């Protein structure tokens, strides 16, 4: 059922539910090791479900709550409750950087991603490597 929800979310967000599209668009947004074509194909075929960190990136990108994408349930929403823990507010410098990043072409985004990962590793921050390597 996850694969059906993922395909529906992709379509609703204006993307074709194809592995090549999912691989490209997901890797532009995910700061860990890139997922492979085979990995995202398994998601779309229903052979596997992404790890929680990847699920959160998918959900944020596609504008759907992670638990809805994973389980298909509509969470109870009570007005005035706390913001979902997966939604991280961005502002100031982060907002400016994200806006600029989104305006870059795919090749420039990949280069910038490698620069950021290099800085992260130099500062002892190791990106999670659950699928593939960078």
Would you write up a description of this structure?
By secondary structure, the chain is an all-alpha fold. It has 7 helices and no strands. The longest helix has 17 residues, at 106-122. Mean pLDDT is 78; it is low at 129-134.
Question: Low-confidence stretches at least 5 residues in length (pLDDT < 50)?
Answer: 129-134
User: What is the number of strand segments?
Assistant: 0
Helix content: 55-70%
Report the major sheet.
none
List the helices and strands and how they pair.
Blueprint: H1 2-12, H2 19-29, H3 37-45, H4 52-62, H5 66-71, H6 93-103, H7 106-122
Helix pairs in contact: 2-3
Can I get a quick summary?
This protein is mainly alpha-helical and 134 residues long.
Index terms:
134 residues, mainly alpha, 57% helix, globular, disordered C terminus
